[in-house]
Amino acid sequence: MSIITQEPQVPEAAAATTPVLSLVVPMFNESANVDGLFARLAGVLADIGVTYEIVCVDDGSRDDTVARVVEHHRRDPRIRLVELSRNFGKELALTAGLQHASGRAVVMIDADLQHPPEAIAAMLEKWREGFEMVIAVRRDRENESALKRAGARAFYRLFEEVSDVRLPPGAGDFRLLDRKVVDVLNAMPEHTRFMKGLYAWVGFRQTTIPYDVAPRAGGVTKFNYFRLYRLAIDGITAFTDVPLKVWTFIGMLVAAFALLYGLLFIVKTLILGIDVPGYPSLIVATMFFAGVQLISLGVIGEYLGRVFSEVKRRPLYVVRGLYGLERGEKR
Ligand code: UDP
Ligand code: MG
Fold first, then answer.
1. Cα of 261 to ligand 2 centre, how many Å?
2. What is the number of the ligand 1 atom nearest to the C-alpha of 30?
3. How far apart are CA 303 and CA 234, in angstroms?
4. pLDDT at 2
5. Cβ(93) to ligand 1 under 6 A?
6. Residues 266, 263: Cα–Cα separation, whole Å
7. Of 23, 87, 176, 300, whose CA is between 20 and 30 Å from 103?
8. pLDDT of amino acid 329
9. CA–CA separation, 95 vs 193, rounded Å?
10. Residue 96: CB within 6 Å of ligand 1?
């Protein structure tokens, strides 16, 4: 699904043998974290002692993330890079990483060291026991703002109510996926990729391990409230059509109420004669239902917009350059 606009700058072929472990690291303006991340990963991975590759995905960084990762790649060819042509968002950066990773197990991890790499050893242990997905679940959200926490809680509760897939609270993108799961995810063509929902949707044998979120090592968060809102809407519209259908019931309720109210008026007029008050209630009712109609149109718009973007069948992302990886999204 990717378009490659440029020949790989580093011609040497990827390592001949398939690594046991692929790490997928999405990066968007993470220049401040690159050196620290690779230093920490090198230590942890040496202790674990499996063959590995680190597939970084540059999501259109405007700082020198790419140059820094390439520098590391030249020193250690197990550090590889998919450079996207612009910022496509974390979900698509992860998708690009999964499509370029070749390991028998793949772990997705943030570049800012909020996900402690030490947890990878425990994940691999569970994987060897036969689990196909090992989800790292954060113990608490203490180092997040109250508004973010409240928003997350509201989202998870709503998602739980309206969709069929279950999202364990506290489970994010930090998880291990077996090759089988990665192949299934790679075969999914959809554009609106709400990864947390897709992981849950695919099934397989899953288990969890707990971890403590660390504060961001350097740089700043890339998710402001507006992006989180978009992510939440993407998630809900991708996994349920309840918001589309609920209007039928609201419409029926309102119509039934209007009918009863009308009957009441007829009876009242027959008994008490004509009386004219009710002007404010008229305005209020008109404005209220105009609002309700606009909301329902907006909901339809959200879905229609997504259908529109799916039917255009554009590639999910565009690759500008590959370092230590072969052409083509699947290997
Ligand atoms: N990220 C990305 N593309 C984006 C936004 C974020 O690849 O458009 C990456 C970012 O570089 C980091 C990870 O996704 O490695 C998580 O982002 P961040 O730490 O900003 O999110 P938070 O931890 O604050 O939720
Ligand atoms: Mg972070």
1. 54
2. 11
3. 9
4. 53
5. yes
6. 5
7. 87
8. 46
9. 8
10. no
